[in-house]
């Protein structure tokens, strides 16, 4: 059997540089179109040289493609090769095996016939090709959004699940949204960066509940521009994300950057953008997740101070983009103010993303903590309209040691376990990011369908000639009845309909007579997309060994 290893001598230590060099040659061979993505079809041919069983290779792919993107980048390819090497050595194929393996002495796997293929490839391609090859995942899908609306995109251009969602959006969902002005009523049109954005975690809570300290605790350092204190210190929305150096980018600048998914925030005006910034810093955690630090929600007399922008509208916008929403409380701030109640109400439809964090729990003793926990659940029960009990994490999420004098040994053990559970929840976010994108895309398509039905219905109710203003006013006054008619006629779920009062406010600025009638072909395209295109896409980019 021909070995792929560059050295057949006894086991030796080889560093990341040597591993990267060897695996880069392999990845270059396997990546036919040099787009930095190894799809299932390419992997079937390349991984077959390992002579592992199909079940083993199925497990290798599942671990390497933990984010379920439908392809392997170079980092995932290296992980796959390390797993293959461990499997050939007789070890179990699991995440734990990889985590405890000594990768410094782990030699490349044996790949039958690979050396011959490498030599053949070298004969056709010059060494400068490999030298200039950087396996960065490049996709032409960003350019699709600049092309003419409705233009068909070749299926061969789709190399991932996200690419497939972009294609479906551009060809079928976006035309419906534009025709019925969905962007004015519900959500701005999507851009390429909205699909490619890293998972996002938003932190909400009253001032001094530890939102900024929580981010600092996870990063183990302060982010640029952060301020921590007992008074309301964070007076703006701050997106904490990765970057080559530490710097703060103003809101007006970040909102016009095409590679950032924040262009939709321009709709909230300059008053908001002056209270918005992006804090960038190099950090391994931020390579996978972004955080949104928010101003403290006002309470008591402070609620009388009017903000210069739509605070609940902005939180609702970020909630739609976020993968997880953390509501922070501390034992001394359990009251839910009117503004906080409106903010929680703006999270409607995102209940599955919400987690409750009872922070600074070591400031009270065990007996008081039980009472505080009960009071918190009682307060939340009045504002969260859900029969399920929200998951509450209890702990003290900062860099200081737990105050055992207050918490006691039982409290300390509880806080450690709760922190481990929360960190486990956060670690799962990148793995679930692709599934979340699909989920949010389907939710948006269902919402756009309902919106189109409503607009089409209102157009049909308008008279042909006389009394248009009077008819429109009557439709606005009886909007809840119109919703019921649309729901009954079209057999639509009531949960998919928007808030009647908010919808009425937006509708009042429009002339119903200028709305488009319902286009049955557009609706059929979206129905087909949900019924056939999305399932086919998931089937195409599933584990190739299933």
TrEMBL record:
SUPFAM superfamilies: EF-hand, P-loop containing nucleoside triphosphate hydrolases
UniProt domain EH: residue ranges: 19-113
Annotated Dynamin-type G domain residues: 195-431
Keyword field contains Metal-binding: yes
Entry's localization field: Cell membrane; Endosome membrane
Top-level lineage group: Eukaryota
Keywords, in A-Z order: Calcium, Cell membrane, Endosome, Membrane, Metal-binding, Nucleotide-binding
A GO molecular-function descriptor: protein-macromolecule adaptor activity
Main subcellular location of this protein, as a coarse class: membrane
Residue ranges occupied by any EF-hand domain in the UniProt entry: 52-87
One GO process term, biological-process aspect: endosomal transport
Nucleotide-binding listed as a keyword: yes
SMART domains xref list: EH (SM00027)
Record's bilayer topology term: Peripheral membrane protein
GO cellular component annotations of the record: cytoplasm; endosome membrane; plasma membrane
Family matches, as InterPro entries: DUF5600 (IPR040990), Dynamin_N (IPR045063), EF-hand-dom_pair (IPR011992), EF_hand_dom (IPR002048), EH_dom (IPR000261), EHD_N (IPR031692), G_DYNAMIN_dom (IPR030381), P-loop_NTPase (IPR027417)
Protein name: EH domain-containing protein 1
